[in-house]
Design goal:
The protein has about 280 residues and is an alpha/beta fold. The chain contains nine helices and twelve strands. Helix 1 (about 20-30) packs antiparallel against helix 9 and helix 8 (about 240-255) packs across helix 9. It binds NADP nicotinamide-adenine-dinucleotide phosphate (NAP).
Amino acid sequence: MINDGNTKVIARLHKQLSPRALNIYNPFFEEAGINAVFLLFYNSDPKPLVDGIKNLNFSGAVTVGFETDADFAKLVDEHDESSRIVNRVGFIKNENGKLKGYYQGGKGQLLSVQSVTSVAGKELVIVGAGNVVKSLLSEISKLANLPKSVIVLNRTISKLEEFNKYNFVKEVGEIKDISSIRGDVLINATHLGGSVVDNIFTEKVVRNFNAVSDVTFETEDTNLITIARKLKKKNATGWDMFTYQGLVVLETILDIKIDPQILKRHVIAGLSQTVK
Ligand SMILES: NC(=O)c1ccc[n+]([C@@H]2O[C@H](COP(=O)([O-])OP(=O)(O)OC[C@H]3O[C@@H](n4cnc5c(N)ncnc54)[C@H](OP(=O)(O)O)[C@@H]3O)[C@@H](O)[C@H]2O)c1
């Protein structure tokens, strides 16, 4: 943090005292020589927090404690397409006094996958149908070079229908069908391997792919990642995704390029302390 009067303030908004990631972004700013600071503000009512961003002319905010709250989305002045697609605000950018809502999950996971393998012309299998997947498919649809095909699997199949609108989605189906499916890249975007014990991603499943990508940040060494490493498959972990979704937030709010390698080092150091 340089703190010379031009320091950009990014807020972490939460319902309660929750300092996770302060120990990631502040040391990262220090090492990268970025004139910015990441500070926690908390209140069970998000309105005074959002008003504060505008009134105090902060550069932006990460909405961590409120990102699953659909009502929170009404507090900002406008929405980027990434936010409209999931009807959630993952972060806010203050654009000359107007607060614009964005969502970073899909682009974060796509960049994480692309850090280990290209998706152009590839066969992708995506597991999940939540906000990350909605956002990921939207980001894929914007690529100049699309994957050859995408299969989306989920536990609840009724949530998959809407994905048929994408021409590149070849098939949707139940998670239990995964053992008969082959592809280039396997992407997990569910709670499996984090808060939920994973009995789905077995060695037999992972053998059918060349690369895997995981999502949880509760641990980096999930069952899926451990199997992928054992089988010498390319792999992007949930901590890589955490890094890239952070990169999306910082590049958007601060209008600068972020070095993912330096940021990943701080993600590892910070999450190792706070995620037990
Ligand atoms: N690393 C990062 O930086 C980062 C950033 C954002 C999110 N995440 C993680 O990404 C994951 C997805 O986030 P999201 O916002 O998309 O969540 P979401 O909208 O709540 O969707 C959750 C997904 O997980 C599936 N799921 C939950 N429990 C399951 C179980 N027992 N068996 C099989 N599938 C199960 C759900 O299936 P149903 O539809 O059948 O319920 C759904 O597809 C979360 O674990 C989140 O913590 C990580």
